[in-house]
Design brief:
The structure is a single chain. By secondary structure, the protein is mainly alpha-helical. It has 21 helices and five strands. It has a five-stranded antiparallel beta sheet, covered by helices on one side. A hairpin with a 4-residue loop joins strand 1 and strand 2. Helix 10 (about 185-215) runs antiparallel to helix 11 and helix 10 (about 185-215) packs parallel to helix 12 (about 245-260). The chain is globular. Residues about 400-410 have low confidence and may be disordered. This is Cell volume regulation protein A.
């Protein structure tokens, strides 16, 4: 092995090689029409003992730890990017999908597993619980660059960000029922409500504490603010998990609170977390790829069983769960069909598949191999066709409006001022007005306007148009007043 041959230098080279391989995989994933996670996993399997033989890795506990660490980062970044206004509109169906949907998926899939594999009923339902939830890492990464309608994207992202508690609860519950004769289903159920309720409350509380700390603490270096932000992700998970509640749910809720608040160094924080999330995603899927041995995963018996279970999961269990979970909710048939198809499996089922191995359940290694194959099948079949399915169902949204310019935004801590970026839309009161007509607060001035790829120098007679990016220098004292002016709607001015 490379690490044994060259020691620390070999390890450092290996990390660089894996990261560069992941970046190349991400670059070509969209061209190949494949989700990046598939290529990341492929890199891990290629450099593993059944591939090039560079790394031998079979430590389930370390893989589990890396997976949890990476999921914290990915969930935090996803919550930061999510718009509360959009999430709020789909909160009820997303929570229904994240709870009842996961439960129904687990039961239907578990029933199929019982018929396909030679296992007990409890073991079959354990398998169903492990693959019952959609995966935040897979969903966030797959939807990020695709122009899916906002309602669909928000539903899927909110579901994947909040369904881990049910999946973890069901997985642990069935493990307890299998290995312990004293476990009772009725004794375990209250723990689910504890996990959900406490995680929600503490996520809100720590999120509020987080954005206040970011805005109030005056740090000497601007580079410390993104680190301060992500430290709250780890603090949230550890504090909530310590009292046996869902750390994953709490992290996502805390990130929603922080991301939808007015932050100093907002864009530095967002860019830093996006980069860290990509790093976490690359390393997590590569490590999970290393953990899987292709000779075992791709045995004929595992392929046959995995394909049958995947077909049931994709075409029967998931649609039944979606249609039952969204009864009397404002979703059209086409929208329900798309949500059914876009229920991607990814890192969470693979990480959960390590739980039975750590618990010492007989046959857990076979479960892991089949679940790994099911995840690959889901990513290849569903992930690679999401855009096509959305297009055929008429659920593609407008091209994502991202600026093609690069302006370094800074908060001038010692001067107690900052540069605010704001993109206008058709409903903003300021659209169509000239700068001298707008009552901006004291000690604020527009430094620049970016329109498309053009930099517009602002003058008093400059008219603000829809889609403009405004860069405004403002004293922190008048920040909230400025945002009220910018967010004012046309109908509010009548």
């Amino acid at each position: 092995m490379l690490v044994e041959a060259f020691g620390n230098d070999g390890l450092i080279f290996l990390i660089a090689f894996l990261l560069l391989s992941g970046i190349v995989a991400a670059k070509f994933s969209s061209r190949l029409g494949l989700p990046s996670l598939v290529l990341f996993i492929a890199v891990g399997m290629a450099v593993g003992s059944d591939g090039l033989g560079i790394i031998y890795f079979d430590n389930v506990e370390i893989a589990q730890f890396i997976g949890i660490l990476a999921l914290i980062i990915i969930l935090f970044e996803g919550g930061l990017q999510a718009k509360w206004k959009t999430i709020r509109s789909v909160a009820a169906p997303s929570i229904s999908l994240a709870t009842a949907g996961v439960f129904i998926t687990a039961l239907v899939t578990g029933g199929a597993v019982y018929l396909i594999l030679d296992v007990t009923l409890l073991e079959a339902f354990l398998f169903g619980a492990i693959v019952g939830s959609t995966d935040a890492a897979a969903v966030f990464a797959t939807l990020k660059e695709r122009n899916i309608k906002a309602k669909m994207g928000a539903t899927l992202e909110a579901e994947s960000g909040t369904n881990d508690p049910m999946a973890v609860f069901l997985t642990i519950m069935f493990i307890e029922l299998i290995i312990s004769d004293d476990s009772s289903l009725w004794m375990l159920i209250p723990s689910f409500f504890w996990q959900m309720g406490i995680a929600l409350l503490l996520g809100l509380a720590i999120g509020k504490l987080g954005y206040k700390a970011i805005n109030k603490i005056n740090l000497e270096s601007s580079g410390l603010y993104p680190i301060l932000a992500i430290s709250f992700a780890f603090l949230t998970y550890s504090a909530v998990s310590f009292i046996d509640a869902s750390g994953f749910l709490a992290v996502y809720v805390a990130a929603l609170v922080i991301g939808n608040s007015e932050l100093t160094y907002r864009y530095s924080i967002f860019q830093f977390n996006e980069g860290v999330a990509w790093t976490a995603q690359i390393m997590m899927f590569i490590i999970l790829g290393l953990l899987a041995f292709p000779e075992q995963v791709f045995q004929l018996s595992n392929i046959v069983a995995g394909l049958l279970i995947s077909l049931v999961l994709i075409f029967i269990a998931r649609p039944i769960a979606v249609f039952l979970s969204t009864i009397k909710m404002k979703y059209t048939l086409k929208e329900k069909l798309f949500i059914s198809w876009a229920g991607l499996r990814g890192a969470v089922p693979i990480v959960l598949a390590t739980f039975p191995i750590v618990a010492g359940i007989e046959g857990a290694e076979e479960f892991f191999n089949i679940i790994f194959f099911v995840v690959l099948t889901s990513a290849l079949i569903q992930g690679a066709t999401i855009s096509n399915v959305a297009g055929r169902l008429g659920l593609m949204g407008p091209v994502k409006d991202t600026p093609h310019h690069s302006i370094e935004l800074i908060s001038i801590a010692k001067a107690n001022a900052e540069v605010v970026q704001f993109q206008t839309n058709r409903d903003n009161y300021v659209v169509g007005m000239k700068l001298h007509e707008i009552e901006f607060p004291t000690k604020s001035s527009i430094a620049a306007i970016v329109r498309g790829d053009q930099l517009v120098t602002p003058y008093g007679d400059t008219e603000i148009k829809e889609g403009d990016f405004l860069y405004i220098l403002v004293s922190k004292k008048y920040h909230s007043q400025l945002m009220k002016v910018l967010n004012k709607k046309k109908d509010q001015a009548k």
